[in-house]
Amino acid sequence: AAFLTLTRKRGAATYAQTLQNMPETQVTTLENGLRVASEESRQPTCTVGVWIGAGSRYENAKNNGAGFFVEHLAFKGTKKRPGSAFEKEVESLGAHLNGYTSREQTAFYIKALSKDMPKVVELLADVVRNCALEDSQIEKERGVILQELKEMDSNLMDVTFDYLHATAFQGTALAHTVEGTTENIKRLTRADLVSYVDTHFKAPRMVLAAAGGISHKELVDAAKQHFSEVPVAYKEDAVPILPHCRFTGSEIRARDDALPLAHIALAVEGPGWADPDNVVLNVANAIIGCYDRTFGGGKNQSSRLATLAVEHNLCHSFQTFNTSYSDTGLFGFHFVSDPLSIDDMMFCAQGEWMRLCTSTTESEVTRAKNYLRNAMVAQLDGTTRVCENIASHLLNYGRRIPLEEWDARISAVDARMVRDVCSKYIYDKCPAIAAVGPIEQLLDYNRLRSAMYWIRL
């Protein structure tokens, strides 16, 4: 009874209180250029990880897939800890480890009890500095990756987005898939993987991030002890200067009438990470919203496009996206529909884009801003999400942007800003289109291009 009384007396923090009471992100840069960042909280667990500014965008046609291959091998043993010894040590901590590779980032992180933070830092440093890359493990993982590539071919949404990058950034590094090609995976050697690690795993391109019940001073001390020997790149190659990935208005169509549903994505060139237009475009995307047939609400949803989809049975689902990279991005929408509904769904979706450019209302913007605020706070639920947020901010913006600043940026958006920014990126622009499945009804590119503007008398 006493416990229940105590619980009832605890008041929920308001949104404003949440923004003001967020723990400070502390950042320390070591002599070799490694950035150590943490956010302390009263948690019995912590997430510690290394984020590296390296991914498929840093690869070429010959070694595309090397980063993904290295990620697969990272936790398979080090020179100091053979595979079985590494796994036993992690299991003895009761820890959970994971990693991923994207087009511009590679991450290795471990979630464990807060008291084990120093050991976690040591394990991560061993992975980054001394990954064994044994020939036996390489051959074993080669088979695993080839099997994954076959399975990925059945995920039509992922296939569509890979095609979208391939056509939007054709001839550039952003056109590469993260996983690489089957031919590359078959022929990559240990020397190729070692070369990739030696080239890109440099201290100035790394962030050691942590969130949870940890002390920043203890984290820095552990980093100095275990990461001080991570190679320092020469100043000119600390962050490689990448050629601008020029956006191309074009299309890729992979027609297969044996498939039951069509996957279609349409995008224009969006801004890079640090561009302030991103906040306005995210508000615009929130106005359009998303939809799936499993959603409740029917035609009473706030999204006009969702209402049309329900009333006219236009699609099974749709979503908007604003995918940013260091200097460019993709802003668009993706939908899944029956073969005979493609034209109607595309007409309505492009019509919504034109409405964003010409007649967005203040009430729509207010709703979209509230949606963004909720999503912003929700994504910081848990030490792993916070840890990833810290690291990605440091890599993309050079600093951790506080929630209060994000809220101020969102609050400053109004309907005129949405109309102006959407006109800048959408109106009368050549889109990139990727379509997979029974897409006979998808109109000719020139017809779709003509729907990117309205003739107003």
From TrEMBL:
Q: InterPro entries in the record, alphabetically?
A: Metalloenz_LuxS/M16, MPP/UQCRC_Complex, Pept_M16_N, Peptidase_M16_C
Residues in Peptidase M16 C-terminal domain copies: 188-371
Q: Name one GO cellular component term.
A: mitochondrial inner membrane
Q: Does the keyword ATP-binding apply?
A: no
Q: Where in the cell is it found?
A: Mitochondrion inner membrane
Membrane topology type, per the record? Peripheral membrane protein
All copies of domain Peptidase M16 N-terminal, residue ranges: 35-181
Sample GO molecular function, one term: metal ion binding
UniProt keyword Ligase, yes or no: no
Query: Domain of life here?
Result: Eukaryota
Q: Which SUPFAM superfamilies match?
A: LuxS/MPP-like metallohydrolase
- TM stretches of this protein: none
Assigned keywords, A-Z: Acetylation, Electron transport, Membrane, Mitochondrion, Mitochondrion inner membrane, Phosphoprotein, Respiratory chain, Transit peptide, Transport
Give the family per the record.
Answer: Belongs to the peptidase M16 family. UQCRC1/QCR1 subfamily.
What does the annotation say about its assembly with partners? Component of the ubiquinol-cytochrome c oxidoreductase (cytochrome b-c1 complex, complex III, CIII), a multisubunit enzyme composed of 11 subunits. The complex is composed of 3 respiratory subunits cytochrome b, cytochrome c1 and Rieske protein UQCRFS1, 2 core protein subunits UQCRC1/QCR1 and UQCRC2/QCR2, and 6 low-molecular weight protein subunits UQCRH/QCR6, UQCRB/QCR7, UQCRQ/QCR8, UQCR10/QCR9, UQCR11/QCR10 and subunit 9, the cleavage product of Rieske protein UQCRFS1.
Recorded protein name is Cytochrome b-c1 complex subunit 1, mitochondrial
